[in-house]
Amino acid sequence: MAVKEYEDWGASMPHGVGAHFYPELDSTNAFAQALTCQGERGPIWIAAGQQVAGKARQGRNWVSKPGNLYCSLLFAPQIAPADIAPLPFIVSLAVRDTFIALGVNPDVAQCKWPNDVLLHEKKASGILIESSASGNSIDYLIVGIGMNLAHYPDDAIFKATSFTEVASKQVDVRVALAILAEKLKGRLDAWRLGDFEPIRAEWLSCAWGFGNKRLIRTATETFTGTLVDLNSQGAVNVILDDGTEKTIYVADIFPSCA
Ligand code: BTN
User: Which residues, listed in sequence order, are joined to residue 240 by a DSSP beta bridge?
Assistant: First the structure.
């Protein structure tokens, strides 16, 4: 891997956590993954001023022009693959905490399954978690987070917004990353393995779309149904219009009139 110039942002991070800021990367997730080939296991944040090949869920592209936060936390917790189901919910809550700490009214900041954060019911952040495991242990985790601080795409599949649009003020990318790093560390430190319930309950208390009819799009079908609960694996229980129950593991969810 070619050596790239970076700014060391470690001074803004919680104790023991590194941070490198690169003006431009293909993808902070991909760069963090490349670092693992050199033995890096963090904890370290990789942030970029812009990404030219930003990755989103389900193989989509994350448009990554300058002004927003693009970052990935690389770390190697001592856990088994079966333990990571709560992680997307922990990360979403930490992103929501960050928007609130920056001045967003908590009432308008919601988590959307599986791991987006909405402001005023529009997407303001997306999360892409990638992992590598060998046998029954996690080798490393990469938690990639995009936060729309200054701008948002106007052609996204789910309507988007930005922090600036909602809060009518601007925020420095480094300041936002410092808050996010602190919020996520606090939540990861408090995470008790095997105890999803408090995380699940908190996430549901600020979740978008539960109790309402929604349009659900999986890789193979599109249907409407009411989101009723989050199960212990982090999947969503849905009641379909004909009254039958279904559990969804991978899908995009939209307002039912989308
Ligand atoms: C999604 O909503 O589908 C997830 C989007 C995740 C985007 C972030 S930006 C920083 C990190 N690097 C990437 O290439 N993707 C994630």
Answer: 225
